[in-house]
Predict the structure.
Amino acid sequence: MSSAGRSLDAVVVGAGPNGLTAAARLARAGRRVLVVEAASTVGGGSRTRPLGDARIDVCAAVHPFGASSPAFEALDLAAHGLTWSHPPIALAHPFDDGAAATLLRSTVQAPHATADGLGADGARWRQVVDPFSGDWARWRHLAMDPVLGSIVHHPLSMTRFGMLAGLPATVLGRLFSGRDARSLLAGMAAHSGTPLSSLTSGGVALALAAAGQGAGMPVATGGSQSIVDALAAIVLAAGGRIETGRRVGSLAELPAADAVLLDTTPGQAAAIIGAKWPRWRHGVAAWKLDLVLSGPMPWVSPACRTAGTVHLGGDARDVATAERATALGGLPDRPFVIVTQPTVADASRVPAGQHVVWAYRHVPNGCRTQLATAGIENQLDRFAPGWRELVLHRQVTTAVQYSQYNESYVGGDITGGAMTPWQTIARPRLALDPYRMGDGVWLCSQSTPPGPGVHGMCGWHAAGSVLGASRRRRRA
């Protein structure tokens, strides 16, 4: 496509973390960029809103991959106001006896802090997880690049990682003998939204454990909105434009540009460009409970009191059972629940003495029953009895409400598509450049590699593909 007569080099549809990262990279490269967003504000899954006198994250809250994102590092978000706040304990996984397994951020003084707390499994943890977390500055690139490209360009490293990451979490857990190590891995694998017997679950567990140890599991100071605010500032500072309140239904509604980047699902992208797309499967949904408390959460386990993230669900077998039931369309009474406590690390979000608790579970896609809330409450009662007496404000976000909040969250699926083995490798298609959808159109959402999370790498890679195509066009 020729740029003759065009006032824009690129239009980005969607101002979530990936759309804004793509726009920032292109604008920094001297391209004329316009970002259009249907909502009244930028942010996507990284917005922060008030609840009472507190500020809560609407979707993503804890950012191990954001804190180690090569894209965010290259764009220097810190220069535009972003800071990370780390809790004393990255993650805690409590049990009914009051004990808890913990994942700790590695330091120069304590490079094997997590392993040192795992007793007899410590040596094996050092062999399985610590080689990746100890050199996370290098491994993060492989973890956040397209799988097929990493295999082609780094076959030896990917073989080393893949020998472990290709195992289901249920099999990976058998490398360990104790409850703590197995449960830590099971909880991290459950972030995948797939049964723990899935071939992708072990890779998610290993990558999250390595990132959590290597970079920590921090929150963005002031709220996740700080991330997208920094990205938007970069776009504007580089001469880009952002228009909110502008919904796009087809390419004909956009101004002429050499490249259009879509921060949408594959199905939405196909509708916009007027093309057919192979069936794209969406996964389980999120169902969230937000709480503002008059004091700290009354956890039975002391470790949970200073942990930024807490995994509730019992031991590894209990977690696997709950996630499998959900994947099959069930609604277990004792679900696996991911809890974040941002105010353990960042007190700026609340008035003095108050605390924010953010808890979500997986439910079947499109779930509507309020029994899902009761399941979250059951697990909070189990591990933090007395929390109900501290509630100042509460808010439930159902699967349907998530799909209404963001049209890319189809049925409440906040991951951009089920993390099945095929949809992890072919995301959204099997190609060395999975971002390019056709002549002049790219997909830059979490439906592309490396997948979900607030790290901006999907947008970063898509923008790289656009820049590469531009260079080839100039040489032609």
Remarks:
- DSSP finds 19 helices and 17 strands in the chain.
- Confidence is low (pLDDT under 50) at residues 1-5.
- The CA atoms of residues 299 and 383 lie 6 Å apart.
- The radius of gyration is 21 Å.
